[in-house]
Every structure is written in C-alpha cells, then in structure tokens.
Design goal:
The chain has 122 residues and is an alpha+beta fold. It has helices at 51-56, 61-66, 84-110; strands at residues 4-14, 18-29, 36-39, 44-48, 71-74, 76-81. The strands form 2 sheets. Strands 1-2-6 form a 3-stranded antiparallel sheet, with helices on one face.
Length: 122
C-alpha cells in the first residue's frame, strides 16, 4: 500500500518577536497521522518520527502518561524561534524529515510483502 501524507505549515510572527511555525497533518493513508514526537513530561516537541517511533511510541499523551512513557506522538506541532533564520531552517528541515519518513515507512511496510520464485540450476 502506498503511503500518503498531507500537512500544512502556518508561519506567523508573534509578539517578541517570535517566529512561530504550526505544522498539522490533515490527511494520512497507509500511516497514522501522529508523526510528531513529543517529550511526555514537558509536553514539548522533540522531532519528526522515525519508522521505529511510528511502531514503538503511542499516539496519545494521556496514554503515554498512564504507561509512564518518556515520549509520545501527535498529529501537530507548534514551535517558536527567536530568529527568522532558525524558523526557516526548521520549516525546511521538517519538510525533509517528513518526506524521509513517508519514503522509509512505505519501504518498511510494503517492500517485504510479495511473492518470489527462484529457479536454481547447477
């Protein structure tokens, strides 16, 4: 099955100034939409998930708290930076990490399945 993921990044300038980036997954096929990893105790964004994270981390903070897990996944993240350069770097890096996750997840979930037939002659 092919993996499809749509997301939106809303960039704004807040008082301070702070350069805010809100990223939200709006559509997902073949993968759960909770692709952002958060620190459970601090409830702060940590990273875009890896394939391992998608299989290992729970997609809900309340469940992570109940199970005493250090991290959980969510479908949106909201971060702010003090410089526009740092915010722009985050936007670019995050887009690349999301693309890498989709590619790797697709390979991990679909490349193993199938049928092969070998004919060996000596």
């Amino acid at each position: 099955m092919s993996v499809t993921l749509d997301y939106t990044q809303v960039r704004s300038v807040e008082a301070g100034p702070l350069y805010r980036v809100q990223t939200t997954v709006s559509y997902a096929v073949g993968i759960q939409p909770q692709i952002f990893v958060f620190n459970t105790e601090l409830n702060t964004f940590s990273r875009v998930s890896t394939v391992y994270d998608m299989n290992d981390l729970v997609p809900d903070r309340n469940r992570a708290l109940l199970e005493a897990r250090d991290y959980y996944r969510a479908s949106a993240c909201d971060v702010s930076y003090e410089t526009v350069e740092a915010a722009e770097e985050f936007v670019t890096y995050t887009a690349g990490r999301i693309q890498s996750l989709v590619t790797a997840y697709n390979q991990a979930t679909s490349s193993f399945e199938g049928t092969s037939h070998e004919h060996v002659v000596s």
